[in-house]
Amino acid sequence: MAARIMNLPKHGLCHLMRTSALARHYAGSTGSASPPQFTTLSVDDKTGIATLTLNRPPANALNAAFMGEIARSIKELEKSKCRGLILTSSSERIFCAGLDLKECYQAEASHLQGIWVALQNLWHTLYSTPLITVALINGHTVAGGGMLALSSEYRIMLPNFKIGINETMVGLAVPMWLIDTYLNVIPNRRVAEWDLTASRIYKSEHALKAGLVDELAASKEQGLERAVAFISSYPKHSLVARAITKRQFREKDLKNFEDNRQHDLEIFLSNIQKPNVQSYLGEYLESLKKKA
Ligand SMILES: CCCCCC/C=C\CC(=O)SCCNC(=O)CCNC(=O)[C@H](O)C(C)(C)COP(=O)(O)OP(=O)(O)OC[C@H]1O[C@@H](n2cnc3c(N)ncnc32)[C@H](O)[C@@H]1OP(=O)(O)O
C-alpha cells in the first residue's frame, strides 16, 4: 500500500475575542499552521483514501485544538487528490466521548467560546465536505462523538459499543444543526425527537437495526476493508456529480446553521455557564472518575 503520513497545519485560537466578533472571525476558518498533536493521517495514494485516526487518550474528548486539527485535515484533504476519508480511533474502547467536559467545567467564558466555535466549525467542515466520508466506529461514541459519526455519510461499527447523543443528560440542549444531522440519518421525526430528548444511547447491534449505523464489522481490520469498499464503490467519473448531489441534500441544514451561528453560540454560552448546569457537570465528572 502506497501510504504516506501527512503533516498538517494547526489552529490558532484567540481566547480574548468578544462573542460576536469571535463567531464572525471563525466562520469558515479552521486556524493557522503547526504539526498535528492529536491525530495521525495516512493517505493511500493508489486508492485516494485517507484515514484520519483520532488519538487523544483516554477518551478522544474534543477540545478546541483537537477539533481544529481534525477540521484542518479535512480541508487539506479536499485540496489534494483524495476521494474519501475514513475516521477512526487509536483507542480500542472509545471512538470519541464528545466535548472535553473537564474543559467545560468552571472555565472562563473565552475558553468556552473557543470550544464551541471549534465544534461549530468542525461540524460544518465534516458535514459539508465533498469527500466521501466513513466513520469506522471502533469504540463508544457519544454526544460530540455521535456528531462526528452522524455527520459522516456511512457508519461502520464494531460490536458491543455505545452510540448516541446524550446532551440533555448532561444538562445541555441539542443544537438545531445537530438535530438536522440526526434527522438526516433517522428521518422518522418521532423517533429522532424521542432519542434526542431522552438522551437515548444505542448498543451497536440495536443501532444497526434502528438505522443509526449502516454495518457492523467484527474487527477494526474488517471495518477498514468495508470502509474502503464503500468509498471505492463510487466510480471516478461520478465523483463531481456525487459531491454536488450530497451538497444539495445538506444545503438547507448548512444554511440554517449559518443563519443562526451567532445565536447558537450565545445559547451554548448562556446554558453552559448556568450554576445548575455547572453543578451537574461537576457531579457528572465525579461519577466518571468514580467508575475507574
Ligand atoms: C447547549 C448546547 C449543547 C449541545 C451539545 C452538542 C454537542 C456536544 C456536547 C458534548 O459533547 S457534551 C459531552 C458529553 N459526553 C459524555 O457525556 C460522555 C461521558 N463519558 C462516557 O459516557 C464514557 O466515558 C464512555 C465514552 C461511554 C466510555 O466509557 P468507558 O467505561 O470505556 O470509559 P470511562 O472510564 O468512562 O472513561 C475513560 C476516561 O475518559 C474520561 N472521559 C470520558 N468522557 C470524557 C469527557 N467527555 N470529557 C473528559 N473526559 C472524559 C473519564 O473521566 C476517564 O478518565 P480517567 O478517569 O481514566 O482519567
UniProtKB/TrEMBL annotation:
Top-level taxon of the source organism: Eukaryota
Coiled coil location: none
Alphabetical list of InterPro entries matching this protein: ClpP/crotonase-like_dom_sf, Enoyl-CoA_hydra/iso
Keywords, sorted A to Z: Isomerase
Keyword Isomerase among UniProt keywords: yes
Record carries keyword Isomerase: yes
An example Gene Ontology molecular-function term: isomerase activity
SUPFAM superfamilies hit by this protein: ClpP/crotonase
Gene3D superfamilies found in the cross-reference section: 2-enoyl-CoA Hydratase, Chain A, domain 1, 6.10.250.170
Protein name: Enoyl-CoA delta isomerase 1, mitochondrial
Source organism per UniProt: Bactrocera dorsalis
Chain's gene name: LOC105232332
